[in-house]
Write a structure and sequence with these properties.
Elements: E1 4-12, E2 18-23, E3 26-31, E4 37-47, E5 52-61, E6 77-79, E7 84-86, E8 92-94
Antiparallel strand pairs: 1-4, 2-3, 4-5, 6-7, 7-8
Length: about 100
Amino acid sequence: MATITAASITAGQLPPGLSIGVTGGIARISGTPTTNGTFNFTISVTEASGVIITKVFQLIIGSSTPPPPPPSNSAFALDIGGAVYTTPENSILIF
């Protein structure tokens, strides 16, 4: 993996409450979003070799209200860290 020396938003914006930076050679978005909505932005990172990589992202921030519990007779997987929920039918719900 290449070492990142700089990272910035070059178009659009992160949700309020989030910021981008470089820690230990890795570009990271951190913070706690304070506004729900759909945010489109472009991130440019510079590798130690001088190569610049640019990528467009869309981040959707929703309510922090947890999903309702599943019926007692169904399987249900929940990954809190990734905010990905899987239903018995293998549908993916993102909150």
